[in-house]
Amino acid sequence: MFPVSALLETNLKDIPLFRKGKVRDVYDLGDRLLIVATDRISAFDVVLPNGIPDKGKILTQMATYWFNLSSDSMENHIVATDFSQYPAELSSYADQLAGRSMLVKKTQPVEIECIVRGYITGSGWKEYLRDGAVSGISLPKGLRESQQLPEPIFTPSTKSHEGHDVNITYQEAENFIGKELASNLKEKSIRLYSMAAENVRKKGIIMADTKFEFGVLNGKAILIDEILTPDSSRFWPMEDYEPGRGQASFDKQYVRDYLATLDWDKTPPGPELPEEVINNTREKYIEAFEKITGKKASL
User: Over the stretch 179-208, which tens digit does the pLDDT of each residue have?
Assistant: First the structure.
C-alpha cells in the first residue's frame, strides 16, 4: 500500500490559475508566481491516469537543492520554498503546498528549452543513427548507444506546452531568440551541466543529459522552472553503466520502458499503471534524491 495518496489536482480557491502543465500547476500572485509540483506523471507527452505518490515533493526538494547549490554562480527565480514564509492568503492550503511548491519571481520565459547532452542517448541517439549528427552538430563516427561524447553539446528544442518538443539547431535558436541571448544560454547551460555532472559523478551517478529553462527579468536571463531532477535529466548508476545499450536509470525511463511493452499508440488516454510500477517508480525517485543530495527525503 502507498504511504499517502497521490496529489493529482490542486484547487486554490480565489487564487488565479496562471497555467496548468503536465506536472505543475502555476498560480498568479501578481508580480510573483506559485509553482506547485503535483504527483502527475507524463510519458510520451501524455499525462497518465495514475500519479506517483510524493513525486512532486521529491522533485521540488531536489530542484531546491540544485538552485541553492548553484545560486552563487547563476541567478534563479526562487523567492521562497518554505511554506511558513508564504503570503497569508495561502495559509489554508498547507495540505496542497507544503514541501511541493515554490514561490518564484515572474519572468518572461525564453521560448526554447536548453538541452545539454554529455552522452548519446534518447532522441539524440536516434538522430545520430539517422544523420551522424544531433541538432546539426556532427559527431564522431562509430559511437555506441549511451557512449560519452568528447565534450558536452548544447542541443536546444522548441518549447511545446501541448504535444512534442522539436529539436532545433543552434542557428535556428539564434534566429528564434537572437544571437546574444542564444550565446548566453548556451554558455550558462553547459557550465551548469558540467558542474552538476561532476558533482553526481563523485556519488557514483552519471548525468547523461539534462534540460534547463530560462526567463528574462530586468533584461537578464535567469534560471526558472525546475533544474536537475529525474523529470528533466537522465541519471544512470555508474556501477551498471555499459556503452552499447540502454541504461538502468533513476528517472521516469522506468515508466517509459513499461509502457513500451503495451499495445498502446502513445496517444491519450494513457494506460493505468500497475501498483508494482507505481511503487518501483516512487522508490527510484526517492533513491535518486537521497543519493544525489545526501539527505533523507522529507515526505
Answer: 999 999 999 999 999 999 999 999 999 999
The answer regarding whether domain 17-106 maps to CATH 3.30.200.20 reads: yes
Ranges under pLDDT 70 in the chain: 1-4, 160-164
Please enumerate, as own/partner, the contacts of 53-56 that have beta carbons within 8 Å and a separation of 24 or more. Answer: 53/2, 53/3, 53/4, 53/5, 53/6, 53/278, 53/282, 54/3, 54/4, 54/282, 54/285, 54/286, 54/297, 54/299, 55/6, 55/281, 55/282, 55/285, 56/7, 56/23, 56/100
Which pTM does this prediction carry?
0.93
Note the pLDDT tens digit of each residue in 139-153.
999 999 999 999 999
Residue intervals of the chain classified under CATH 3.30.470.20 are: 109-251
Please answer whether residues 160 and 166 qualify as being in contact, where contact means their C-beta atoms are separated by less than 8 angstroms.
Answer: yes
Q: If we measure between CA atoms, which residue out of 258, 243, 256, 250 comes closest to residue 282? A: 250
Report the distance separating Cα 52 and Cα 161, nearest Å: 21
Query: In the CATH scheme, what architecture does the domain 109-251 have?
Result: 2-Layer Sandwich (3.30)
